[in-house]
User: What shape does this take?
Amino acid sequence: MAFYVVEVDNDGFKVYDSAGNAIDPAKDASVTALGTILTAIKDTDGIKKITDMISANISQWLGSTAPTVGQKAMAASIPVTMASNQPPVSVTFAIPGGEALPRMVSFFYNQSTGAIVANQWKRVITYTVPAGFAGYLIRFTTFQGEAAYSRICALTAMGSLNIITNVFTAGSSYTLPQWTSDLEVHVTQAIGSAANVVVTIGYTNEVGTAGRTGTVTIPKSSIIGTRLSVALQAGDLGVSSIQTASVVPTSSSGAIVIEGFVQLGYHEDGGTNFMETMFNPGSVAYPAGTVLVLEHQGGTVAKSRRFDVLTQLIVVP
Assistant: This one.
């Protein structure tokens, strides 16, 4: 059966047979009647009416704005549905650059060493989670050649105090509801030999109550690396931020930093011939910028100490 294709635009119309050949309705008798009808429509401005109607109907279907090329928000996009008999679509997940995940980082420490001050924490590894990643603690394995504690922590430097000038410099803080129950002073410049010094710290506690007070006494002649816990005001569980710190008396030398810790893993190493391991893949997570520290206690006599912390880094979208 013969059929014809009519191409209509604002300039008029064109007719093609089923083979795609152009036909002149004025000369081909088989389509003379069609040509007469189309000419009448054109002469009465019918072409414009037809194209206006088509444009209006398309606008109602797509919305008030005609579609354009390029990615758009969902509200400005043409809806697309899949056919009911569409076969399964294969989907491949990737990240820019095709880099494989996960990324494992191992902090391995194997030294014969002692504590700086007996039974106080000594820091042996510090690592900051890089921007664009979140970290997950996978495994924490430890051995010490004596009965001693070890731990992996998230560290927050909350301020510093010059023991000579009595000048406090504020540091970082926790955002409630997060806080630390382990607040310590860390001697970074040896304390003078004249007298013990008492540091008083003004802080906001774990429920946001400001104006709380904690104290710690630092013995005279304390060496660099000395670590002491701050006694908090009665009833407080922890500290979210520090507003003030002062010392009485001042000394001829000395400086401290005030540090908050959140313990991610903690071991009581027994000094026997086996290693203690905590294995909790993905249960402990920390964001970019977190400062991880690996620390141990024990005596000042050198002993074998082996620590291995395995953490996984995940790209943050």
